[in-house]
């Protein structure tokens, strides 16, 4: 499972197309049904083009989402964004992670969690834009993380956030 920072609806596309074809054809982005089921074009893209796993956000049964993702992992790799929504504040590198990443990892301890940092996508496909602006983006993949039984939720999420932030080479002087 790939987990990445989230700045644009183009994030999952960039990550998805960067994967080798044999990996990509079995990889599904996880996204909010509230956004991707609005209108026929979004629904077509979600179901027919990207084969998204759509989840109901904000419900009163977070275990149902964890189970839905765990079931999908039996047959597919997934792309998730643990921040839960796109980051709009350029002064904040990451929003706090939602707990879903922890619960999926705990339920699937053998699962490789691959951190992926995506930079500049917020300028390529800003909120409200449909057509991308032709600018360069960078994508960095890190070493996989695994669930550790001795780790509580807070420690696991801090470790996952740190793994992602360590890939943010733009902040370290590489542009």
Overview of this protein structure:
The protein has eight helices and six strands. The chain has 175 residues and is α/β, with parallel strands linked by helices. The protein has a domain at 2-14 and 61-165. Strands 3-2-4-1-5-6 form a six-stranded mixed beta sheet, with helices on both faces. The longest helix is centred in the last third of the chain and has 13 residues, at 153-165. The protein is globular, with a radius of gyration of 16 Å.
Descriptors:
six-stranded mixed beta sheet, 35% helix, 8 helices, 15% strand, 175 residues, alpha/beta
Task: Describe the secondary-structure layout.
Elements: E1 2-4, H1 11-18, H2 21-24, E2 27-32, H3 33-36, H4 40-49, E3 53-55, H5 62-72, E4 77-80, H6 100-107, E5 114-119, H7 121-124, E6 138-141, H8 153-165
Parallel strand pairs: 1-4, 1-5, 2-3, 2-4
Antiparallel strand pairs: 5-6
Pathway: Lipid metabolism
Pfam families: Acyltransferase (PF01553)
GO molecular function: 1-acylglycerol-3-phosphate O-acyltransferase activity
Give a summary of the structure in a few sentences:
The chain has 175 residues and is α/β, with parallel strands linked by helices.
